[in-house]
Specification:
Layout: H1 3-12, H2 15-26, H3 32-39, H4 43-55, E1 59-62, E2 65-68, H5 70-91, H6 93-96, E3 115-118, H7 126-137, E4 140-144, H8 150-162, E5 167-173, H9 174-181, H10 187-195, E6 199-204, E7 210-215, E8 218-225, E9 228-235, H11 238-253, E10 256-257
Parallel strand pairs: 4-5, 5-6
Antiparallel strand pairs: 1-2, 3-9, 4-7, 6-10, 7-8, 8-9
Helix pairs in contact: 2-5, 3-4, 8-10
């Protein structure tokens, strides 16, 4: 165990040590009585903690109380930053655990404030329903998807027939297009879509089990489990939308446009 591992182990052996560092990082200096009030700990406990932290170089004692040393500030802020990032990762665990990090390295920080939707036994179509709603409300849609669904095809065909000013772009893997072509009941919708000047379709030689989408000002990232939609994050945060747009650009650049009828 190297030095920093020892320091982390030392801090994590007592919640009160972390709380003292955080309290002093928020509002220093604080005397022992103020620390007792903030932590709800006894004077004996506070005396022991500040003594140990001082010995290890985390604190400096002033006339008006205790303050963090430069070392204490660095460790406290690094630890709090780690906790924030780890908390975000945990909040969106159901998405991130199934996301292929080699193909789509998503920084959890981009997910701050995003809404998470998860398919459950009681709501198995929650993600599909939300995607249909987002598409229905948008005037410009960009997507990358691993499969083609009947409802999505039908919705898209209806929109391109009925509306002006609607734009749709999608990158799809070759097997998904082949599967759609094998269903005669999809044929009319596919002809309408491919003939439309509002729709740009691209076929990718890559396979993927995630979804990317930008619908006007909203961006989404989703994952499949056992070939079914499982988790989706949705956000209007500009940084997240820009990230999704950039990934869509990359996949479109590596795909082949489908010739319109």
């Amino acid at each position: 165990m190297d030095g920093i591992d020892e320091e982390l182990a030392f801090l994590l052996r007592s919640d009160n040590r972390i709380e003292v560092l955080s309290a002093l990082d928020d509002a220093a200096p604080l005397d022992r009585y103020e620390l007792e009030g903030r932590l709800g700990a006894s004077r004996r406990t506070i005396t022991r903690i500040v003594g140990t932290l001082s010995e290890r170089g985390y604190l400096r004692e002033r006339d008006s109380g205790y303050a963090l040393s430069a070392f204490g500030i660095a460790i406290a802020r690094a630890y709090n930053g780690y906790r924030e990032t780890a908390g975000l990762a945990d909040r969106y665990r159901l998405l991130l655990r199934h996301l292929d990090a080699d193909r789509l390295a998503l920084d959890p920080e981009l997910l701050r404030g995003a809404e998470l939707i998860v398919a459950t036994e009681s709501s198995p179509y929650a993600i599909l329903d939300r995607m249909l709603q987002l598409r229905a409300e948008a005037t410009r849609v960009r997507e990358l998807a691993p499969t083609v669904g009947a409802k999505s095809l039908g919705q898209l065909a209806e929109r391109v027939e009925a509306e002006e000013g609607f734009e749709f772009e999608a990158v799809l893997p070759a097997p998904a297009l082949d599967d759609a072509a094998s269903h005669p009941e999809y044929a009319e919708a596919q002809r309408t879509i491919q003939a439309s000047g509002a729709v740009d379709l691209y076929v990718s030689s890559a396979s993927f089990s995630f979804v990317l989408g930008v619908m006007d000002g909203t961006a989404v990232v989703g994952v499949q489990v056992d070939d079914r939609p499982y988790a989706l994050v949705e956000s209007t945060r500009p940084e997240f939308r820009e990230w999704v747009d950039s990934r869509l650009d990359e996949y479109r650049a590596g795909a082949t446009p489908i010739t319109k009828c």
